[in-house]
Structures are given as structure tokens and as C-alpha cells.
Amino acid sequence: MRRPLRLRLVLRDLAAGAAFGAMAVSGQLPVWALGVFLGALVLALCDVRLVARHARLSALGLLVAAVLLGMQLMSGAMNAVVAACSFAGLIAAQRMLSTPDAAAEGQTHLTGLLMVAGGAALSGDMTYALCLIAFGVLASLSLALGVVEAAVPDGEPVPVRAVLRPLSGGVTFAVAGAVAFFVLFPRLNWAMVGPRSAPGLGAVSTAGFSNTVRLGGAGTIKSNPRVVLRAQLAPDPGRDALDAYWVGRTYDTFDGLEWTNVAGAQQTERQITLRPASDTLVHQRIELLPAYGSRTLIALETPSRLGNALAHTPTGTRSSPVQLHGGGEVRFTITAPSYTYEAYSLPPDGKADLSTALLQPEKDQLLALPEHLDPRVGQLASRVLAGEKEPLAAARKLASFLQRDYAYTLEQGGMPEDPLGDFLFVRKAGHCEHFATALTVLLRTQGIPARLATGFYGGTRVDGGYLVRAGDAHAWTHVLVPGRGFITVDATPPSNRTSQGPVLLERLLALYEAVEARWRNSVVDYSFRDQFELASALVRPPRRPAGSAENPGSSRLPPPRAWVTAAVVAFVVWRASRFASRWTSRAPALEATRLLDRVEALLQRAHVPRFEHEALEDLTTRLARDGHPLALALTPLTRRYLEARFGRRALREGEAEHLLATLRRALEAEAARRAVKPDGQSSPTARAS
Amino acid sequence: MKASARPPFRARLRAFFRPPRTLSVTKTGRTYLVVTFGVGLGALNTGNNLLYLLLGLLLSMVVVSGVLSERCLRDLTVRRVGADAAFAREPFAYRWAVSRKAGHGFALTFSEDLSPLTGTGRLGHLPPGQECVVRADLAAPHRGPVRLSGVRVTTTWPLGLFAKTRVFFLEGTLLVYPRRGYACKEPGPAESGPRGEAGSPRHLDGTGDVAGLRELTPNEDARRIHWLKSASAGRLLKVEREREERRIWKLSLETGLTGDALERRCEEVAYQAHQLLEAGNEVGLQLPERTLRPAAGGGQERRILQALAWVGFEDTDSREAA
């Protein structure tokens, strides 16, 4: 057996790697499966066929892996798709490391194909498309080289360069065809969605809410640029930087170290109403991404209503009820990597007095102070306020003081026993939790009710929506103003409220998110509605905005793209007709062949003696040479058959029937002649003289 | 009688399903189609757009495969170079010459269409504007003339999913010689003297050193004349060698043999003739319908083999002649 082409094997292994990558980007495969496959890929690329001589042992290993995966599946620790994909990856790894024969080639490509299909069920990320295209290109090249290599005689080189040129064109055509099929193939459903459950490769929940906020931790999250939330707002503010507060929950009890809540209302509904609705609510359609990692719903500051939630679990998308907890926190009741839901919030200048909706223990906690609070805190507040008693003005005065005299830093010097005193009187530097805690406690020392709120601050505009990053996590203060409810006052310096990550990395991620958003809108969420709108857009002029005056110079003709579409369709029809004309041009030859078949059948029925495999023209020649009466009918018929078959002189309409009728009459006459012939005369001999 | 212009429906249906190209699905292709079908069902069932995308790519690759294989088989020019000698039930070298004016051809497999010849020739790459000779080891099941109707050219390019075949109609005949099998019987004694058309054994060629010159007698081999000495002597002089006499065998094929007995006898005669001619003897052949005069050398062996190959196929011979 000759040695296979190294390049082909490398392409095959890389194709399998791309197919595995299509699954791996979902982040749902177990780490050990990732490790095994990557190790096998590296070995295969180094041409180390580890299991070539241990086929049975490796098959046994696969069997053990199948049993383990099955047990995990039965115990519910792993879902069926992930288990099947993991096993496909293991099979591909085993095949890559085995002897590179034809069977191993085919099985590697087949498992690659299955892995790509599995990846479609696991992930909806744009990286899947890249892996799919990479797999298609690499596998096609490998297969084509294999086909040519099999046909090249031993010892001759495989024409790799000659193969690449037509094949690259073919693959390009295939990708374009795939896009065309995707766009044009009619969907059978109005609302199709792709998988949203994938946490992504290397995803770690970074911005989760906990039941407490403990001071003193390092603010590493502020440098994390991962996107945790996508939102579509209506009405659309249209600003590039939203600079809005996205509240998750509030805290009212501070013990000197950490913030907690007293028990609040417990209510489970499909939709939770926190405040009375008004006509000017801001509607938000929010998607919480796997990097968020919490069950707390987020909404723009002063949320009114939250709900209509869908939990995107690995086993599918389900409707999730929401539950109200203390501190105005609303949680999903189903744990899932990602969620989508709707929220309504009051506009920034809206007023809603929530104080009456609070329970009495919650109201009491808004003025509670830690037991061992440093007395200098109250003195500091009195000195800064200088007799100011109006809550909002006092809060703003204290916030200005903190922003002016205190520095923002993410660095922490250990874990002090009194983090608030350490911030206010020692280090005079901290992050948003320190600023918000200081403002809240300073207000409470002066008898002004306040609480701590946590969530996100910011919002970067991408493709018509807004993104919020893990680094946008923030804490601020709610001041209870009589008659107006809770008013947001932020003591953190404005420049330090949003994400503190590297600017270049954030720009790159923003670009990626923009492309990813288009991918999701154009591919993952592509539906019959989009197809309908696409078709409508091609044939109808664009709609004018309501109320706009009609342009007298505008034409009622279809738009240019409709003409272009019509031209493209006409070209395709023309090419198809050209292609079909090749078939119709074969008609004369087929007609001649049919004439020959009918002549042969007539001659056979009449028992005309013929040699084995004797052609019609040979028979005619022989009969003419012998002076046989049938030659008179056969000669013109044979000549016309040959002309029609090979001479490009098609039979005229009815000519074949006329020739056949002549032959029939001649055969009948010959039969009658033979019937009256004496028995002693022999029939024509079958031997040519 | 009114003639109908359109052929009958059955004929049209048959013509539709029998296009000039034949397409068969390979084992890899069957698996590919099954997976494609499964992905299609999955896409329809789940509504997963990524599966639609994958399905589109898989179907597009099928179309690309068809287009590229069609381009590969288009505009080919094929001719037979043929074989030096084809023996029944023995592999023999056979050649086709193939070329195309423009465009590359890949992974072409050649075979004879509708013939009992087995074996294929392969060509990995056919560059444009060049004529490539494809060699194949073919085998014929029995001796005799084999009528060749066309050359089948098959390609699995580009992905090996489908094997597309085109038949180039090319009439021809290949004469398959009888196998030179082992002969149980000895060829019998050599001819002992002048007999019939064989003439005197002394007119035959000899071996060894030159023994002398003598005058050429009638019916002696003219190739033995020493032209230089003959010119100087003014008469035809013949070279005599040490081992002057070459023995003559006259093999015969008995009449009335048919079937396996005839085949076996043809193989025996072919073997005996080969052995005798290899030893430098002259061999003649007596067939029921013709006779070959004794002669030596490779040319005589070919004549004997041809005569043996045609035994029992004289009717075909006469038709070919006609």
C-alpha cells in the first residue's frame, strides 16, 4: 500500500478540528472531551498515529467512554446532544490517530459532518459559521485530493496545484449556493429561533448578583469587557452612549461590613408589576447572556413591570415565571444560561412614589445604621451638609463632596475591620461600592432614608440596540424623597462609573458584537417573516414615512432592485433553457434510434435470418448482394436511418411511419412468397460468402 | 395513414431516464446523502436556522460535484491505442489516448463499454492541450474477436460522492489470442524431409559459425544469400552454417472439436507453437479451413495465434471482411 499524501491527511485532520470547533464554541462539551480531542489533533498533525497498532484497545476505550457518557446521560448530568457530540469527537479522535486508510478517511469525514450538525444544535454563535466554512473548505480539499490521488498511478506525483484552482471555485460556488438556499428556502414557521443556550467557550459567569454586597473586595469585574446584556429600547433614545442605570436589586441593611435585605414580599407571576404603569413607559426587550450568570432581572432605573421571560436551557427554550424578592429584586424561577424577557421602566423624569408600597420593616431599615459605626461618620456628614435638611439637596451635596475629596481606585489594601471608616478617613480611595455605601450611611446619619442599589451603568449602542458589559457593574444610592419616591444619586466620579477595561479590547469586542448582532438578526433569527419582507422589498417601492409629502417627480414603477431581480431571473431561465436545449437537440438521434428499434422488432417478428450481432446496415448490404426482395424496402430505410442517426438529417414528420409501412408491406409480400415456395428450396443461408 | 410526430410516452419516458451520462452514487456518497437527508429533517423539525445553513452547504456541494464532474467529462477526445497482444485469461497491457483542448480533467477511469474485457485504466490529471496515454491491465475471459463498441470514461471528481460516466462510441475489434497454457502432449516428430509446401529442410536458416558458401538451389530461402560474394561470383551464393538444418513441425487442429475441447486444444497448440518457435524451429499450422506454411520467428507465432483465435469465429470474420 502506498503512503497517503501528507497534505491530504493534514487537511482531513484540520477539517475534523474545525468540525469539533463548531461544537466546542458552544462551551457545553466536557473539558476532558476537549482535552482528548485537542491532544489527538496535535498528534495527528505531527503524523503520530498512536492507535494504528492498537485498534482493538482504542475501540475498547471508545466503548468505555460510551458507557460513561451513557451513565452521565442517564443520571441527568449531561443532555443527549452534548453526549452525542462528545462521543462523535472521541470517534473522530480515534479515527485520526489510526492507520490512514480509506475507511478511516471516510469515517473521519462522516464524524466531522455529524459534529458540524451537532454544533448547529449546540451553538448559535457566529464562530459556528466560521467553523462550518472552514470544515467545508478543508474537507472538500481533502476529499478532492483523495479522489485524484486514488486515480494517479503509483509513483507519479499528485497534481495538487492543478486541483486547487477548480476546486476553490467550486467551494466558493457552494458557499454562495448555501447562502442562496438559506435565504430562499421557505421556512415553515413564522417565529424560528436558533439555539441561545450555549454559554460559549470559556464562559465564566462574571456579573452575578448575590444576596449580599461585601465591602473590601477588589473591583476586578470593572475591567471585564464581556457583554452580559443586550437590549432593544422603545422608544429608541438614539444615543451612542446611553449612560443609564440598569438596576438589579437594592439593599437596605448595612452591618458595617456587608449589605443585606430584610425579607421582602414573595410573589410568583408571569409578570411582576413594581409600580403603576403610565403612558410613557420605556419598553425594553432584554437578552441576558451566559456571561451574566444570575437569575436576577435587570431593567432601566425605576422599573415598572418585568416578565414574559423565556429561559434558554440546553434542552430548549421554556417560558419562565418570575418571582419578587426583597429589595425589589425579581428573579427567574428557572436556571438557564441565558434569558430573554421584557421590562417596562419609567422615563428618567418620571415620578412614582413607591414608599407606600414598602413594608414597614423595609421602611424602618432605610434609616438603620451599623451598631459600631464610627462616630466620625456622622460628624463628617453634619460638617459637609452644614444644616441642609432637604433629602435630595443633601444627597447631592454629599455626593459632590465625595467626588471632589475622594479618589477612585480598584486597588484594595487588605481587608480592614471597618471598611467604611477605612475609606472615609484612612485611604480616602475606593470603588463604586465604597462611594455608594459612604453616601448612603452619611445620609442615614442625618435622618435621611436611603438604600444601596446595584446593577449596571452605561450602555453602548450596537446595531440599533445597546450592550452592557460586565465591567459596567455598578453601585449607587437611592434617596427616598417624600412625594417623589426613590431618587438616584451617584457618589462615584462620573468618569469611573462605566467599564474600566482596555479601550482597544473594548473596541474590538464592540466590533465583534456588531457583527455578531447582524449574524443573529440575519441568520439565527431568520424566519419566514424575513423572507416575506425580502420578497416584498424586491418588488415594491419603499414605503414613505407616514405624513411625508409625495414627491411629484417620483415614479410609480418598481424600484431598480426589482428590475435587477427580474434580469437575474431572466438570465437563469435563459441558461436553463439553453441547458434544456441540449436535451431537445438529441431528439433526432433518439428518433432514429427508435426507428431502428421498430425495424429490428419487425424483422425479428418476420423471422428474417440474421447473424448474431449483425447490424441493420450489414443485413441490408448482405440482402442487396444476394438480390433479396426485402433489400428494396430496407435500403432506403437504412440510408435514412444512418443519415438521421449520424448525418444530422433528422427524419421528417411521418417519414418514419412511411418507411416502416413500406417495410411491413415488403415483409408481408415476402411471407406470402415463402408460403407458396416448394419445400425443397432452402432459406437464405446465414453464412456470408 | 396519419403519422404521429411525437414518439410514444414510454419511449419518451425511457429517453428521459436514460440521459447520455450515467450517474451512480458511491459508498461515501450514499452516506453523505443519508446525512444530508437527516440534516434536512432536523432543520424542518427543529426550525434551527444553522441546520438550514448546513443543509444548504451540503446540497450546494452536491450541485458543485455535478457541475465539476460534467466539466471534467466535457470536450474529451478518446481514441484507442490498443494492445500489442491480448491473451485470454491473462492480463495484457491496453492503452487509450485521451486529450482535451481546454480545461483540466481529473480522476478519470477508462474501460471498454459492453465488452467482456475486465480491468480499468486510471488517469489522475489530464492537462489541457496534451494527449495522455492511459495504460490498463485488461483481461479477456476467452479467445476470439471481441467487438468493442465504446470507451467508458468515469470520474468521481471532485468529492468522490458520485461516479459520472460518459461513453464515447468507438467501434473496433480486439482479437484475443488463446492462452498459451501447458500442453500435456508432445508436438510429435518433426518433419523429416521435403513435404508439401514446406519444401526441403535445407533451405532453412541455420545457426553457428559460417561453414562455407554454395550455390542457391530453387525453393531455398533468399534471405540466406551472401550478396557480396554473389555479386563478385556472378551467381547467387548461399551461406552455409555449422548447424544448418532447422527442424520443422506442422501442428494441426483436429476437425470436429467444439466447446471446451476446442479451447483446450487451441491453448495446447498455442503453447507448443510458442515453445517450438522459441527454440528456433519452424512451425506450420493445419486448421480445418486453412493452412499456415511453416516459418520461424515472432511473426509466425503471431500468425499462428491469430489463426487460432479465429477458429470457431469464421462467421464473424466474414462479416468483418464484408
What is the compact description of this entry?
The complex is a heterodimer of chains A (689) and B (322). Chain A is an alpha+beta fold. Helix content of chain A is 47%, strand content 16%.
Shape call of chain A: elongated
Largest sheet of chain A: 12 strands, antiparallel
Instruction: Report the major sheet of chain B.
Output: 6 strands, mixed
Which percent bin holds the helix content of chain A? 40-55%
The count of β-strands of chain A is 20
Please state roughly what percent of the residues of chain A sit in beta strands, choosing from under 5%, 5-15%, 15-25%, 25-35%, 35-45% or over 45%.
15-25%
Measured between the Cα atoms of the first and last residue of chain B, the distance is 38 Å
Q: Estimate the mean pLDDT confidence of chain B.
A: 83
Secondary structure topology:
The complex is a heterodimer of chains A (about 700) and B (about 325).
Chain A: H1 6-24, H2 31-45, H3 55-75, H4 80-96, H5 102-122, H6 126-151, H7 160-184, E1 213-214, E2 227-234, E3 241-251, E4 253-254, E5 258-260, E6 267-269, E7 271-273, E8 282-288, E9 299-300, E10 303-313, E11 316-320, E12 322-324, E13 330-332, E14 338-345, H8 360-365, H9 375-385, H10 391-405, E15 407-408, H11 419-427, E16 429-430, H12 432-445, E17 450-462, E18 465-469, E19 473-481, E20 485-489, H13 503-524, H14 528-539, H15 560-585, H16 587-605, H17 616-626, H18 631-646, H19 655-676
Helix pairs in contact in A: 1-2, 1-4, 1-5, 1-6, 2-4, 3-4, 4-5, 5-6, 6-7, 9-12, 10-12, 16-18, 16-19, 17-18, 18-19
Chain B: H1 9-17, E1 21-25, H2 27-46, H3 49-73, E2 76-82, E3 86-87, E4 92-100, E5 105-113, E6 121-126, E7 131-138, E8 144-155, E9 162-177, E10 207-215, H4 227-233, E11 237-243, E12 248-252, H5 259-278, E13 282-286, E14 291-295, H6 298-310, H7 314-321
Parallel strand pairs in B: 3-9, 12-13
Antiparallel strand pairs in B: 1-9, 2-4, 4-7, 5-6, 5-8, 8-9, 10-11, 13-14
